[in-house]
C-alpha cells in the first residue's frame, strides 16, 4: 500500500514502527504531541525513515501521526517505558541541580547495561535528549564497538551532546563533518566484539575513562550534566566483568540494568562492600526493543561508515581521495593471534594473555576497502626516518601500541591500491592527512 495511514497514539502509549530493509516510509505528526526516544516531533514536518529505523513514537498526552506508506511492522503498544524513563530523568535533574550549586558534587554518572538488544542505547539516547531539552550538555560515552553510534564501528567514544539526537539521523548529524555541532573523543579498537582483543579493549577503556574523568572535573557544563555510559551486551561472565571494570573506571554512581538478572545480582554482590555507594537499579528489558540480525547489523555498520565520510544526508560532506606513498606510510594491523575468537582456539585451549599486539602491514594490497584509523605521529615529526640505504626505519611495535592509546585523528577508507605496492588511495574527510600512521580495522566498505 502506498497511501497515507493515520494512527491514534493514546496518552502514555507508543506507536512502534519497523521499516523493512530496502524500503522507506515517511512519518508526520498530524496533531497533539509526540516524541521519538526523547526527541520531540515538530508538527507537520516529514521525517524520512529507512530500513535501518526501528522506532517508537511515544506520546504523554495523546497524538495522531501518519505514515506513508504503511511500514512492514506498525502497532500501538500500551505497555511502554515512557513514564519510567521520564521519572529517571526527573531524579537525574535533581542531582544536576545540586551539582550546579555545590562545587564538590558532579552531575549523575550513569551506566546502562544489559543483554543484547535490551534497549540500552535507546535508554541512553532518551536520557540524553531529556537532558538537552532541560538545557544541559551531557557527555555520552559509547563503550560498544559494534554500535559505533557517533563515528564508525570499532571505536570507543565520548561525545558532549549539545543538541537533540534527532529521530531520523541519530547521532550522525551531531558528529559528521568539520563543522559538526560536537567533536567526539575517539579511540580505535578495530573490531566489533569486546572479547576479540580483550587486552586492547581494557587498555583503551582505561585511557578513555581518564579523559572523561578529567573532562567532568574541568568542563563546568559536563560537571553539571554528568555522563551517560552505553555498554555492549553483557551476555556472559567476561561481559559482566567488563561492565564492572567500566563502573570502576568511569566512577559510576548509578548502574541501570535492563532485564538481566544475572548481571544485576553479580553487580550487586561485587559492589556491595565498595567504599563509594553505587546504586544498581533493575529495569525491565524494553518491550519495544527489537532483536536485530547479523544482516541488519552489517547494513547499519556500513551506513555509519558512509555517513562518517558523506554526512547523514547524501553528499552533505565532500570527502577527498588522497594518494599515500607506501614508503612513507606506517600502517599496522591487530595481529591474528590477538583477534582470533575463542572459538578458534583448540578444544580446552587457553587464550594467552600477551597484551595488545599489532604488526606492521608489509604491502598495501591486503588493505583494499579497509577502514583505517589515522593515529597521531607525535615524536616522528620529520618522518619517515630513513636508514643508511634510504629505507624507512620500521617503527617499534611498542610505538604502534602507544599510538593505539591516543585518540584517533580521523578515519580513511582504502579505495584503490597500486599493484606494485607503491601507493594506495584512501577516501578521507580532509585532503591533507595530518599523519601517515594508521591502524587497520576489520571493517571494509565499498563506495556504491
Ligand atoms: N520502544 C521501542 N519501540 C520500537 N523499537 C525500539 C524501541 N526501543 C528500542 N527499539 C529499537 O530496538 C532496537 C534495539 O534497541 P537498542 O539499540 O536500544 O538495544 P541495545 O540494548 O543497545 O542493543 P545492543 O546490545 O545491540 O547494543 C533498536 O533498533 C531500537 O531502535
Ligand atoms: Mg546498543
Descriptive notes:
This protein is an alpha+beta fold. About 25% of the residues lie in helices and about 25% in strands. It is built from 10 helices and 23 strands. It has helices spanning about 80-100, 120-135, 170-175, 200-220, 220-225, 235-250, 260-270, 295-310, 335-340, 395-405, and strands at about 5-10, 15-20, 25-30, 35, 40, 45-50, 55-60, 65-70, 75, 110-115, 140, 155-160, 185-190, 225-230, 255-260, 280-285, 320-325, 330-335, 360, 370-375, 410-415, 425-430, 435-445. The strands form 4 sheets. The protein has a 7-stranded mixed beta sheet, with helices on both faces. It has a 7-stranded mixed beta sheet with strand order 17-22-21-20-23-18-19. A hairpin with a 2-residue loop joins β4 (about 35) and β5 (about 40). The longest helix has 21 residues, at about 200-220. It starts with a strand and ends with a strand. The mean pLDDT is about 90. Bound molecules: adenosine-5'-triphosphate (ATP) and magnesium ion. Magnesium ion binds near residues 121, 144 and 230.
Q: Which fold name corresponds to the CATH topology of the largest domain?
A: Rossmann fold
Percent range of helical residues: 25-40%
Radius of gyration of CA atoms, rounded to a whole number: 23 Å
How do the strands line up in the largest sheet?
Answer: 13-12-11-14-10-15-16
Q: What class would the helix/strand composition place it in?
A: alpha+beta
Q: How many E-type strands? A: 23
User: How many angstroms does the end-to-end distance come to?
Assistant: 29 Å
User: In total, how many domains does the architecture comprise?
Assistant: 3
- Can you say what the CATH homologous superfamily of the largest domain is? P-loop containing nucleotide triphosphate hydrolases
- How would a crystallographer describe the biggest sheet? 7 strands, mixed
Write out the distinct hetero groups bound to the structure: adenosine-5'-triphosphate, magnesium ion
The number of distinct helices, counting runs of at least 4 residues, comes to 10
Strand percentage lies at 25-35%
Poorly predicted residue ranges: none
**Oligomeric state:** single chain
Q: CATH first level of the largest domain: which class?
A: Alpha Beta
- Roughly what is the average pLDDT, rounded to an integer? 88
Global geometry? globular
Indicate the CATH architecture of the largest domain.
3-Layer(aba) Sandwich
